[in-house]
Amino acid sequence: PLNALNLGFGGGRTNHVLWRLDHLPALKESPKAASLLIGTNNICWGSDQPKQAAEGVQAIAQRMHAMYPEMKILVLGVFPRRPNLDHPHRKQIIELNAYLPDLLKDIPNVTFMDIGAKFLDEKGGLSKAMMPDTTHPSEAAHTIWAEAIVPTLKTMMGK
Fold first, then answer.
1. What global pTM score does this model have?
2. How is residue 75 annotated by DSSP?
3. Under a CB-based contact definition with an 8 Å cutoff, are residues 53 and 43 in contact?
């Protein structure tokens, strides 16, 4: 209903998104808004440290702003992975997300939103009901995700 174009690909990393932005044909009109969720593969399966992955997210937001200065950009914190809070991937994601507000604050038209806690139980656990394979959102998690961001995206789009 928001006329979205999904440019996400399985296994994607920040460098892949930067490459795609460099090679996409220019759009005739600037999009009104974009949402960006990237970075988990940089740290959990990649070789980046959390700060490097966060800087990759920043570079994408900067590039998107340079391409379409009027476009509003909603950058999402990386979603939690793995059931337990003490898992190394969870710790890396928490660290990565902690860097993002400061790295993004000076980029015009960028808003940061971390909705990861909405997927967790009261003890910080990530259930199979939210992410059956401990990484990818279930249908229920997609509903939570949409309900969390659509109002902000609609505001960004002037709807």
1. 0.95
2. E
3. yes
DSSP-derived letter for residue 8 is: -
- 48, 56 contact by CB (below 8 A): yes
Which backbone phi and psi does 60 adopt, to 5 degrees?
-65, -45
Digitized pLDDT (tens) for each residue of the chain, 159 residues in all: 888 888 888 889 999 999 999 998 988 999 999 999 999 999 987 789 999 999 999 999 999 999 999 999 999 999 999 999 999 999 999 999 999 999 999 999 999 999 999 999 999 999 999 999 999 999 999 999 999 999 999 999 998
94-97: long-range contacts (C-beta < 8 A, 24 or more apart)? 95/50, 95/51, 96/39, 96/43, 96/50, 96/51, 96/53, 96/54, 96/57, 97/54
Kindly state the helix (H) or strand (E) to which residue 154 belongs, with its residue range: helix 139-156
Q: Please name the amino acid found at residue 133.
A: D
Task: Report the chain's C-alpha Rg in angstroms.
Answer: 15
Using CA atoms, how far apart are residues 26 and 100, in angstroms rounded to an integer? 27
